Amino acid sequence: IEIKNNLWNKIKKKLEKILNIFRKNNASIKQYKENEYENNDNSEVSDQNNKLVITSKIEKYANPIIKKAQIAHKSYILNCNPDIGNDLYNLVKQRIIANEDTIKALIKINDSSITFLQILELLNHEQDTLKQYKKAKTTKKIDNGFIFSQYQIPVGIIGIVTDNVNEIIKNIFKAITTRNSIIIIQDNYKEHSVENLVLLIVREALKKLELDENII
Question: What is the mean pLDDT of residues 168-173?
């Protein structure tokens, strides 16, 4: 996984797409496009200026998100409580079950391709996977007594671009399991959706256990 560059490119593409829409509706740019007598040199200068505007806007909005994710990741991996992951999952599970009716209503309203039972299954699967965190797997023994082993450890910040509800919720839970900061970009984002409610439940659980909610 390319941690920073891949994430940066994903965010850049999304913001460029949004900014292109705004530029099309901008009267001054329309007027510029209608002028058939502009030479190529001026066009190139304008393109460069537009790219500078895009870059500045990306830096304005994306950099703070990445910085918060970095801080959250560091604070989570430095937490010395060996049971923090299970504590989080148990708290999240309690809150999800308590909000069963609301979750089912949001699934129905948004016609989401997930069920309440599937959400619990994703949660339980990640909690079971948590048992493998930092567990050594012996891969090779050497005659002189040295042993090569593999460990599951976090890598830092991961960027996910998806509109699939199952993938979104799975990656929300995966941030707890892997201790990576996970930034999810969703084109069809809705404030009142089941994935957003699950995200809010997890972030509230993080805050309650005095962890940085910006891990997700």
Answer: 95
C-alpha 63/C-alpha 55 separation (Å) is 11
Helices first, then strands: H and E counts in the chain = 8, 4
For residue 73, the Cα-to-chain-centroid distance in whole angstroms is 12
Rounded to an integer, the average pLDDT of 66-78 is 90
Strands 137-141 and 147-150: antiparallel
Q: How many CA atoms lie within 13 A of 169 on its CB side?
A: 28
Distance in angstroms (rounded) separating the CA atoms of residues 159 and 184: 6
Cβ atoms within 10 Å of 58's Cβ, excluding its own: 18
First CA to last CA across the chain, in angstroms? Answer: 17
Predicted model pTM: 0.67
* Per-residue exposure over 177-190, b if at least 16 CB sit within 10 Å of its own CB, e if not: bbbbbbbbbbeeee
Query: Is residue 58 classed as helix, strand or coil in its secondary structure?
Result: helix
Which pLDDT band, with edges at 50, 70 and 90, does 175 fall under? Answer: very high
